Amino acid sequence: MSLIVNNNSSAFNIWSNFSANSSHMKKAMQHLSTGEKSVADNPSGIGISERMRSQARNTAKARDNVENGISLLQTADAWMQKMSDMAGRLSELAIEAQDGTKGTQDIANIQTEFSQLIREMDRITYDSGGNPAAKFNGKQILDDNLSGNVAITIQVGADDGQTIDITKPDLWVSAAQVLMLNSAVDASDQISQLADIIDEISNARAKNGAQQNRLEHTRSGLLSYEDNLRASESKIRDVDMARESTNLAKFQILNQVSNAMLAQANQLPQQVMQLIG
Length: 277
What we know:
It contains 8 helices and 4 strands. By secondary structure, the chain is mainly alpha-helical. The strands form 2 sheets. A two-stranded antiparallel sheet has the order 1-2. Strands 3-4 form a two-stranded antiparallel ribbon. It is rod-shaped and about 140 Å long.
C-alpha cells in the first residue's frame, strides 16, 4: 500500500459515506417529525395526493351540507307532528261538540279550545305578522306559497353540479281550511274537513320522510367516498413510522461507525513520520 500525504483517498471515501448516512438520517428524522413524505420523495405522487386531499375536504363539507338538510327536514317533521296532534284534537272537539246532551256553556268552552288551536296552527305556518314559528335558520319551512321558495338546493358532492333540491311542505292551506270553520258550519263538514287536513299533514310528512331517507343514504355514501379517498391519499403521502424508525436507528449507527472510521483514516498519513523519523 502506498503512503501518501497530499490526498487521503480512504478518508475521502469514508467522509462521502458519512455525508450520505447523515443525509439519510436527517431525512428519516424529517419523515418521523412530520409523518409525511416530502415533494422530493415522490413529486408525481404528491400532486395526485393534493387533488385527493382537496376532494376529501370538499366531500366533508358537502357532508356538512347534507346533515344541515337532514336537520331542516327533521325540524319540519317536528312541526308537522305538532300540527297533526292539534288537527287530531280539533277533530275530537268537533265530534264532542255534536252532542245534544251538552249545554250552551259546554259548547262555548269547546269552541274556545277549538279557536285557540286554530290560532296556533296558523301561527306555526303563516302568522298574520309574516313571522311564522316554523323556521330553520331563519327560513320558512312549511309555507311555500307565502315565501315563494318551493325548494332549497343543497350541494351534496365535491364537484360542480352535484346538488339535491329539498321540496318544503306547504301546509298553510290546511290552516286556512281550519280558519274557515266556525260554529255555524255543519258538524259533518267540520269532521270531514279535519279528516282531509289530517290526511294532508300525513302525506306531507311521508314526502318529507322520503327526502330525509334519501339524504341519509347520500350522507352514508359521502362518508364511504371520503374514507376511501383518505385511505388512498394516505398510501401515497403518509410515512410508515415503523419503517422510518428502523431507518433512523440504522443510519445513526452507520453515522457513528463512519465517524469512527474517518478518525482512523485520518491517522494513515501519520505513518509517513515513521519512515523519516
